[in-house]
Design brief:
By secondary structure, the chain is of the alpha/beta class. Helices cover 45% and strands 19% of the residues. The strands form two sheets. Strands 1-2-3-5-7 form a five-stranded mixed sheet, with helices on both faces.
Length: 183
């Protein structure tokens, strides 16, 4: 009885959050496994760019989230613009490259990451993308990063002083499911 009494003193909202956290812990193995499997079976390639944008939108407060993938993407499939209180014309930008691959993502993805950096750092004002690049994510729906990709991301991060992170498999699914549930 003592355990139930303790539980009753925890707000129901907090208890519900804890239940959901357990489900999100390993989304492709736990109670959400069938949802993750269905998402992975239903969507592929560029469709994931739209899913990632839709999932991030409710999670990125006060931000504008854009799908930018396509022939002129310059490396980024999704960009998040956060308001810059010091310069309203130049938002803080987080760029995301989405890959729907199996196995390990190779270091050739780093070339697209470099394109993202270059597209925000060009000296020609007519070609520079609007905003201040503050971070880059490589989102892998099924694959994991190869050690070469991880090394290249670290090198780009050190050279350009911009965080470059890989979000793979369950970590990406966790974010995707949280965002889609908040829509």
């Amino acid at each position: 009885m003592e355990g139930k009494e303790l539980l009753l003193k925890i707000a129901p909202e907090k208890r519900a959050e804890e239940v959901l956290e357990k489900a999100f812990n390993k989304p492709s193995e736990g109670p959400l496994a069938s949802v993750v499997k269905d998402l992975r079976n239903e969507f592929s390639n560029e469709a994931w760019e739209h899913i990632v944008r839709a999932a991030i939108e409710p999670l990125a407060r006060e931000a504008e989230v854009y799908h930018t993938g396509g022939p002129n993407e310059q490396g980024a499939d999704v960009v998040i613009h956060y308001p810059n209180p010091f310069d309203l014309e130049n938002p803080f930008v987080v760029a995301i490259q989405v890959k729907d691959w199996d196995g390990a993502a190779g270091d050739h993805v780093a070339e697209q990451v470099k394109e993202i950096v270059q597209s925000y750092q060009r000296f020609d004002k007519h070609q520079t993308k609007q905003g201040i690049l503050v971070g880059i994510y490589v989102a892998l729906t099924r694959a994991g990063p190869s050690s070469e990709l991880a090394d290249q991301c670290r090198i780009i991060e050190e050279q350009r002083r911009i965080p470059v992170k890989v979000v793979a498999k369950d970590d990406l699914m966790r974010v995707t499911l949280r965002g889609l549930l908040k829509r």
